[in-house]
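Hi R.,

Here's the chain you asked about this morning:
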Amino acid sequence: MPENNAGENYIALRDIPKLRWIPLRRRGSRLAYATLWRWATQGSAGVLLKTVCVGDQRCCTETWLRDFFAAVAVAKSSQSTLSSAANPSATIRTPAERQRSYERAQQELAVAGIK
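And here is the predicted structure, written out as tokens:
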């Protein structure tokens, strides 16, 4: 396996789902190769997974993968904060919260004599 400048081994994208520290997905499935390819070519939350081509294989390192996960978490966190600050209705409410809001509105209408 080739090494990068930091002495860390490159890992073919197809082998990344086999890493033990990558959590299993829903129903116990592994991370899909197509997902890794998409992260490397299109990104997630505006962040691209850093890769390098070794021969005809696209490869990554564990450090680059961890850096990608951290950067995506930060990007999604800031996007969430920005979207809810700019548009309060973008906040997702649970059914119980919606019910309480509905009941509060009904009470306010009754007090105002509208209903």
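One quick note: DSSP finds three helices and three strands in the chain.

Cheers,
M.
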